Amino acid sequence: MKNNSKSLQALVDKLQSELAVAHARILELEGSSTPPKQFSSASASNQTDKSTRTREAALHQTEEIAKLGHEIWDHAQEKTLFVSEELAKIYGLSVDEYMLAVQKMADYFKFVVPEDREAYKDFENRFQKEESFNPLSIEYRITRTDGKIRHLRQSSKLIPAEFGPPTQSLNVIQDITRFKQVEAELQRSRDALEESTEILALSASIANLGHAVWDYDYEKFLLVSDGWASCFGLTQDDFLEIAPDFDHYLLLVHPGDRERYKAYYYDESDFPQIDYRIIDSNGETRYVEQHYMLREQSGLDTAVVTIQDVTENKKTEAQLIQSSKLITLGEMSAGMAHELNQPLNVIVLAAENAARKISQGTAEQSYLMERLERIVAQAKRASTIINHLRTFGREAKEEFYEVDLRKAAVGALELMGEQLRLAQVEVETNFDDDFPLVMGHQIQLEQMFVNLYSNAFHAIKKSDPKERTILIEAFKSREGEATIRVSDTGGGIPDSVLPNIFDPFYTTKSIEEGTGLGLSVSYGFVLAMGGTIAASNTKLGVCFEIKIPPAIGDGISN
């Protein structure tokens, strides 16, 4: 759009330049030392000197280039005395045809389009009353003899008479149709650009999107949009006053994200982006997503930066994660009930045996102590299960902290273990000792592993009990990443389905077995921790591989 507008503007400038040259040439002729006299056939026949011929040749060439012609009109006789070849051509006529067609003013009015006739009559009336020799101008349209509409610009000036008041005028007429067409096209382009700008501004407002220009040489904002400032609950002027440079802007970043933001700021990749939290003018925490692109302009090291308030998205995402977690708990309820039933049954039996011995008077102290210790142990076991469920059901903390992926994998097994045991699923683990910690959330990682175990469980529960195996491997990759693989013997995933398994609500399970949220939520967890998760088919089933970069400055976990 901008390039089109520039080319149109260049064409307009060119046409204006040609027009200016043409008018300058006419004015030069008008202002010569021998000004035009009252026209007569005798004077025309006597103009044979070289300078006059040169002047006329130059005038003819100028008129042809600029599509500009002239005529001499006698107001007393109300007729055309002389018309140039180029002027007649503008009307689609020869000189003789024009002289025959325009013998009086009424004849000329027939060429003027009906919508412009009143304006042209008014122009003629004003010109008739003109006593000075200043030119008057008008723009109007005519209909040529071939029916085409042309836009004209006419400048009329009285010709001084040798004796008495002037009765003749020089009318310079230029065909500016092309100029008008380009001008109209340019205006359409400007209107379209303005409309696009308005739509873009409206879209940015709807999307909570703002932008800024950052100067890396002086580490300060050159400008910020209203959308940018509104993310912080400020006006543009207030924002630039509060956060004019990097150090002051860093104070608006949530303390828990400042180190990450510094790393992002010095990132030299082409299009770095970051999700982080800010503190707005009301002291509330907002979530934003930011991108920037370096540019070189006039030797300055600047960047265009965009910011988007994604607070509502984050809230919705958190609700979705929590819903997925509760759904997972519901799916595990049968196994967890059985898991809790075991210690409760032991407690009941131990209490009943102790009560019977006491009623018979045969209860020895050592026997009672052993039964009480068993009751306490089973109560603690039940309490541990309940506390784990309560922890799993909570919303995760916002800040990342160091966590061991292996512990999260085992924690998820504690929640799913009884369900897997009842289905005769054998779980094998192969954990390396040389394994790095990562920055993340224990609860989110447990939820991810529960989702993976649940998928494996549903895939292999219909197979032969002797072939129901889940293998969990933990090792450090060559790149130093914490890597976990969860493999099963469930037969794998169809190749046509594999590319879609991380899409929200995509599932091949029945409504009773799943919602299609588990893998999508797990993908989001891993991505937020800077890692990757991928699925591939093996000979016996499917393998999910999770890779997460180690915590900054982390040694090897014990």
3D structure, described in words:
The protein has 558 residues and is an alpha+beta fold. It folds into three domains: 2-183, Beta-Lactamase, CATH 3.30.450; 207-309, 2-Layer Sandwich (Beta-Lactamase), CATH 3.30.450.20; 314-548, Histidine kinase-like ATPase, C-terminal domain (Heat Shock Protein 90). The chain contains 17 helices and 17 strands. The protein has a five-stranded antiparallel sheet with strand order 2-1-5-4-3, sandwiched between helices. α13 (311-360) runs antiparallel to α14 (365-393). The protein is elongated and about 155 Å long.
What's a quick, concise take on this entry?
With 558 residues, the protein is α+β, with helices and mostly antiparallel strands. It has helices at 2-30, 41-45, 50-66, 85-90, 95-101, 105-109, 117-128, 177-206, 226-231, 236-242, 246-250, 258-265, 311-360, 365-393, 405-422, 442-460, 518-528, and strands spanning 68-74, 79-83, 136-143, 149-159, 168-175, 209-215, 220-224, 273-279, 285-297, 300-309, 401-403, 426-431, 438-440, 469-476, 482-488, 532-537, 542-548.
CATH class wording of the largest domain: Alpha Beta
CATH 4th-level superfamily of the largest domain: Histidine kinase-like ATPase, C-terminal domain
First-residue to last-residue Cα separation: 61 Å
Q: Specify the number of helices.
A: 17
Characterize the overall form: elongated
The SS-based structural class is: alpha+beta
CATH architecture of the largest domain: 2-Layer Sandwich
Q: What's the main sheet like?
A: 5 strands, antiparallel
**What percentage of residues falls in helices of 4 or more residues?**
40-55%
The side-by-side strand order for the widest beta sheet comes to: 2-1-5-4-3
| The CATH topology of the largest domain | Heat Shock Protein 90
DSSP E strands, number: 17
Residues in β-strands, percent: 15-25%
Domain count, please report it: 3
What Rg, in angstroms, do the CA atoms define? 44 Å
The poorly predicted ranges are: 32-48
Tell me, rounded to a whole number, the average pLDDT.
Answer: 77
